[in-house]
Amino acid sequence: MNNEDIREQIRHNYSVVLENVRAHAQKVNRNTEEIRIVAVTKTHPVDVVRVAVSVGLSVFGENYAQELREKAEQLKDENVEWHFIGRIQTNKLKYIVPVAKLIHSVYRVEEVKEIDRIARKFSKVQDILIEVNVSGEETKAGLRPEEVLAFLNETISYENVRVIGLMTMAPYIEPEDTRPYFRKLRELRDSLNMQFPDIIELSMGMTNDYGIAVEEGATILRIGTAIFGERIYKGE
Q1: pLDDT tens digits for 50-100?
Q2: Residue 202: beta bridge partners?
Q3: Helical ranges in the chain per DSSP H
Q4: DSSP code of 143?
Q5: Is the alpha carbon torsion for 193, 166, 107, 162 positive or negative?
Q6: Domain ranges of the chain
Q7: What predicted TM-score, i.e. pTM, was given to this entire model?
Q8: Which DSSP letter does residue 230 get?
Q9: For residues 153 and 143, what is the distance between their CA atoms, to the nearest angstrom?
Q10: C-beta separation of 32 from 25 below 8 A
Q11: What phi and psi, each to the nearest 5 degrees, are found at residue 216?
């Protein structure tokens, strides 16, 4: 597949995603300007990311620290925003903090301590989301909902870290069945926001369930396959 074919596929897929977001937002009287799409580019080569930029995407999410660092370096001349959305290894935060606008997947105090230490070196306040395991699945990372308040109280004193919202991954089930999990995260955000007014964002919804996430209040959608297709570009 040549670059022009890839461009047309991404342009088409992105337009479909935008239309779906608009339709689901309209169902619940939401403004689509409240909703950001993070294009998940893990394992896609830099050339594909450049193509995505050319059709209007500007926020990209990476799951692996070194891949994030390498792509950010290669695309430093592009006007893009990077998010880290994967499982955090504390010793890899030195690659993440210098380039990530937002880190989605924080749930351990030692992560906050290390983010704060590195951010201070860069005179940066690092925005983060707290990962919440709403479903209770043992295979998923994150705090239980009832643990989040204590975590916030323990980490609020770190001056170079700012918690601006919550993140979750719903079980991989029928989209409509994800609704209770997204709703629970929204309700948790709303209750925390009264005490912590910076907590606004809800990062929830992926390719299979982003429509339901929009209806339940998502402000950030993490979408890979629906934009890029299956990962067919690697090595081309």
Answers
A1: 999 999 999 999 999 999 999 999 999 999 999 999 999 999 999 999 999
A2: 166
A3: 3-27, 46-54, 65-74, 93-96, 109-121, 148-155, 179-193, 210-215, 225-228
A4: B
A5: negative
A6: 3-228
A7: 0.95
A8: S
A9: 14
A10: yes
A11: -95, 5
Task: Read off the pLDDT of residues 153-185 as tens digits, 9 standing for 90 and up.
Answer: 999 999 999 999 999 999 999 999 999 999 999
Count how many Cα atoms sit within 13 Å of the Cα of residue 224 in the half-sphere of its side chain: 12
Cβ burial 92-106 (10 Å sphere, 16+ → b, else e) = bbebbbbbbebbbbb
DSSP 160: T
CATH for 3-228 is: 3.20.20.10
> What does the alpha-carbon distance between residue 36 and residue 60 come to, in Å, rounded to a whole number?
11
Residue 116: Cβ within 10 Å count: 19
Distance CA 155, CA 116 (A): 10
Neighbours of 91 (CB within 10 A): 9
